[in-house]
Design goal:
7-stranded mixed beta sheet, 6 helices, 12 strands, Type 1 glutamine amidotransferase domain-containing protein, Class_I_gatase-like, DJ-1/PfpI
């Protein structure tokens, strides 16, 4: 049976703790249901700890790979979930930055939600882009020469690649839909 995203390969990157559960699992499930092949890469590989509302430990999830072992050429889109600890850890990880830069240089879709855009700052890929995020990330994004808007989902195609961002878990339906549409168009 053919589904809209058959043959599309998506990489979701996280740290090993501090991931906002729904921001990881909702895109993973929504895109997988449409036929996309999903790889969840984490810094150390193996078990990752999710949280609810950034403070309450939730379930653990197994990642498929370590970021160091992944290559951006093998995927069509990159997703960066939020969670303050997750995003703050990713922004300091050289392999996360390498992957983000590879996706932007190849003109591929990058989607980040909530605090996830923090990782884009340190990868030095957002100057001149327009995006949204959790409100507390606004100043950091503006200081990195991005334009910030308050929107459920913001798509920006400046500088040759597509950036999809959303503010928080309430925006997940629009975020997931925008990613699926970008993959179908690619």
């Amino acid at each position: 049976m053919s589904t809209p995203l058959n043959g599309k390969r998506v990489l979701i990157i996280t740290a090993n703790t501090g991931i906002e559960r729904d921001e990881l699992l909702s895109p993973l499930q929504a895109l997988r249901e449409q036929g996309a092949s999903i790889t969840h890469g984490s810094i150390k590989g193996g078990t990752v700890q999710t949280f609810l509302h950034d403070t309450d430990k939730d379930r653990t999830v197994e990642s498929n790979a370590r970021l160091a072992d992944l290559n951006g050429d093998d995927f069509d889109a990159l997703i960066i979930p939020g969670g303050t600890v997750n995003a703050d850890t990713l922004r300091q990880d050289a392999d996360a930055a390498r992957l983000i830069q590879a996706f932007s240089l190849c003109g591929k879709t990058i989607a980040a939600i909530c605090h996830g855009p923090w990782a884009l700052i340190d990868a030095e890929v957002i100057a001149g882009k327009t995006l949204t995020s959790y409100p507390s990330v606004r100043t950091d994004l503006v200081n990195a020469k991005a334009e910030w808007v308050d929107a459920e989902v913001k798509e920006c195609t400046a500088k040759g690649w597509r950036l999809i961002t959303s503010r928080n878990p309430d925006d997940l339906p629009a975020f997931n839909k925008a990613i699926a549409q970008a993959l179908q168009a690619a």
